[in-house]
């Protein structure tokens, strides 16, 4: 069975925030906003494991990416 989860932390505690935009979801676990992924249990556990191991790294990368985006504009 496949479930919709947050691609960043693997949580299924996600909310569809913009009815006009089906691809915008919000994760209550890690504050991710964007499209979610639909995966099977095995991939879900992999993502969750990866998130637990690399949490600070992933968050830092995300923050840096935002900074770069800002500079371009
Ligand atoms: Zn998340």
Low-confidence spans: none
The description of the largest β-sheet is: 3 strands, antiparallel
Proportion of residues in β-strands: 15-25%
The total domain count is 1
Order of strands, main sheet, comes to 2-3-4
- Summed over residues and divided by their number, the pLDDT gives a mean of 89
- Taking the alpha carbons of the first and last residues, their distance comes to 42 Å
What would your notes on this structure say?
The chain is α+β, with helices and mostly antiparallel strands and 73 residues long. The protein has one domain (2-72). 44% of the residues lie in helices and 22% in strands. It has one helix spanning 41-72, and strands at 2-5, 14-16, 25-27, 33-34, 37-40. The strands form two sheets. It has a three-stranded antiparallel β-sheet, with no helix packed on it. A two-stranded antiparallel ribbon has the order 1-5. A hairpin with a 5-residue loop joins strand 3 and strand 4 (33-34). The radius of gyration is 13 Å and the shape is flat. It starts with a strand and ends with a helix. The mean pLDDT is 89. The structure holds zinc ion (ZN). Zinc ion (ZN) binds next to loops.
